[in-house]
Every structure is written in structure tokens, then in C-alpha cells.
Amino acid sequence: MAKTGDTIEAMTLVKTIRVGFDQQSPDFWYLKGIIELYGGESARAKKFFVEGMRLDPDHKKCRLALNTSKHC
To answer: Lower CB count within 10 Å: N or C terminus of the chain?
Structure first.
């Protein structure tokens, strides 16, 4: 959804599934960050990627996405 530009719908979906999704999971923060990045909110995306890396400093997807968001 986020890739197609429907970031509002994507974030709404994340909010509805976060009840069952572990917020201590770096994948949760990666997903939120990707949605924000595709929505043009690179500053917010960076915060989410950093949070994912705080939980798991070796999380490759968060690290790559953070590097990408620095160039946006």
C-alpha cells in the first residue's frame, strides 16, 4: 500500500494490527518507518528506524532503510 502512495491507509492498517504485533520487535518499527518514508516523512521514518535499531543494533533492514532515509 505504501509503495502505491496510499500511506494513510497503510498506517491505519498498522495501527489496527499493532495490538497483536510485538512493539518490542524491530520489524514493527521498520514497517512504520517504511510507510512514513514512502509518505515523504523522512524525519519520522528515521526515528522509527532508529527505534528498531535500538531494539536490535544488528537489524539489517532498519540499518539499510536508515541509510536510505538520510538521502531523502
So the answer is: C
Alpha carbons 10 and 30: distance in angstroms, whole number: 13
At position 59, the amino acid (one-letter code) is H
More confident residue, 53 or 14: 53
Those residues with Cβ within 8 angstroms of residue 14's Cβ, 6 or more apart along the chain or in another chain? 31, 32, 35
Distance CA 14, CA 31 (A): 8
Q: Residue 30: which of 54, 58, 61, 8 has the closest Cα?
A: 61
- pTM given for the model: 0.74
